[in-house]
Amino acid sequence: MIQWNSFYAARAQGDYQNLVSTLADSIVQMAGGFPDERVFPGAEALEAMQSLYEQAGPALMQYAGPIGYEPLRQWVAERAGGSTALSADHVLLTHGAQQGIDLIARMLLDPGDTVIVEAPTFHGALWVFQSHGARILSVPLEQDGMDVSCLKQMLADLARTNQLPKFIYTIPTFHNPTGYTTSLERRVAMLEICSTFGVPIVEDLPYSDIWYDAPPLPSYLELSDHSVSVIQLGTFSKTLCPAFRVGWMIGDESFIAKTIHFKHISDTCSSLLMQRTAHELCSNGFLERNVSKARNLYRQKRDALMEALARHPIEGASCSRPGGGFFAWLTLPAGMSATVLKKHALEAGVAVAASPMFYEEEGRDHACRITFSCPQAAEIETGVGRLATAMNRLIQQI
Amino acid sequence: MIQWNSFYAARAQGDYQNLVSTLADSIVQMAGGFPDERVFPGAEALEAMQSLYEQAGPALMQYAGPIGYEPLRQWVAERAGGSTALSADHVLLTHGAQQGIDLIARMLLDPGDTVIVEAPTFHGALWVFQSHGARILSVPLEQDGMDVSCLKQMLADLARTNQLPKFIYTIPTFHNPTGYTTSLERRVAMLEICSTFGVPIVEDLPYSDIWYDAPPLPSYLELSDHSVSVIQLGTFSKTLCPAFRVGWMIGDESFIAKTIHFKHISDTCSSLLMQRTAHELCSNGFLERNVSKARNLYRQKRDALMEALARHPIEGASCSRPGGGFFAWLTLPAGMSATVLKKHALEAGVAVAASPMFYEEEGRDHACRITFSCPQAAEIETGVGRLATAMNRLIQQI
Prior knowledge:
398 residues; Aspartate Aminotransferase, domain 1
């Protein structure tokens, strides 16, 4: 029998953790970014499939083209809006937004190429860029967006050595893991900087429909006005359900046309049945109703989290108040390790995500991502109570 | 606006053709490897989903773990058989068999690594290995399998320079594009050679259930007996339908455990709804009935192709007689270009695939892949008639 270790590619040498573990029912799940199943289009999805099957017959279950179902691409193009008139040719349907990140990396990253990310950022993006051997540089993320003076200085330094990044990856709206939203002022500043240095922006927008206090700010795609190339990623996983596995990528036509090849070699195509079902739910009015329902449901959960945190104050800790999305960012009291807290919290009956996984650099062990999308309001209260107990015990030991 | 050309990674510099084009209804489709829609589980799939939804509720539409639905992995393990007792831990569910090829490449290939393939081979595999910067070496494929003495010599040469391949990629049963099947004798010889040199085998088996004359020979996984590491790929795209996008990879537990990370970064997970629906159709007896139906249907088409070719003989051409699968390999008269024939055939009203796309090396323009899975028997007769007309015209010009 072959010892596989000697066969693995460089990218597979790491010792990867399987993050997806099943939690006991007694544990409050505030780690994984699961949507609430009450927003899923159960009966409506099955009805849509039945109706599509009556119209289209078994052709519904055939291979699709790798670019995806044209009417849904058209729908995505129309909804994205912006200064440029978008058409279906600007849209490729992906197998969820994660595949969009992967396809962009395949299109743009050679080993050693530079990518700029926010610190912290989505671990699923970090892992893709790492697997491509990219040089990942981090710009501190503040409550109102990337530290733009730091970004400007970094780009100026990189330009001098001809190492400008292939792109900047950002989650400007209801950021994962922090819940922060980049202000309009910072968006404009970012575009100006990217225009100056000729750097594209990859804008990941899985959560922008799920807003609580005010509709989301204009996206980079809407603001860019031809001066900066923007690739935008989106998904139905939060507004319909993850099991459709339907996301999208919006970009220049030439970029999208070339990406088809990489979608093709990744998995031939996505499911026509799932794409058409998603399209049916977009066309028949279900999606808009469901997004309203989701906003109300998740807003209550965000409020429940804020109230629970107020009822269980921890000296030296502070938490973001997200205006949308699934996540809040709890900065721990000085000296407290998130990795240690995560273990104690799990023993106390609540799962949270520790900050190191959201950073490229080592040692950023000072915060936790709290997911409020999955547990019900009463469970959020229970979970925060347990987390506070674990933190108060740890404070004694600092 | 950014000129994207200066941003593309090396792997994206090529000028890729979009193979998936819509043909006019008047064209007989013998190019793309589409299954016949009459074997798709239309109503049965919708019933299975309805029944699953009644049992499981909206949880059916939640994120799944990247490794896939455990009972279906167990089913795949049991069905694969072989000398080793396989369990669910040996199986990862993929988004079709193409994703399996891509995941294996991510796991094993650094740029410059050697891979050995059959000549000709499946273009979807070639494209993946090319995109990883692999050094692709081809061993001639004969009617009864790879030229084993050529393979042995190649491995001996590679061993001397310490460049043994990371794996040999083979489609031993009802090969794509030729329809050939590797004989038992050659399988045993291949295993002996791979054992001697310590080279793993990647065995792609999308068609083995679709046999016409006799059940398929034992797979490499069944024959390997621990002396050679075998990774086997399979799919429900031919036995149920492509739109489920459910395939699998079977391998050593340590290999599968590490592959989870690369599945995760590729697309988070596949659809739990589709995996459970496929499992339901495997468990309730539909799959076995459907595979019998598919064998009969496609056997009639294979026979129709053979009869049509006999009715339209072309001097100097010869065609394989596949024992299963979707494809036959038409070797053209000496001096005839497949690329030229493909164009003339399309004008005459039949689409076929020209041989160059199935070879790593340039200039192999001597044959066509004829797909008989998609057209009905009468269309096969029409298509072959048109192809013969185009060939007879070209013969005048040689």
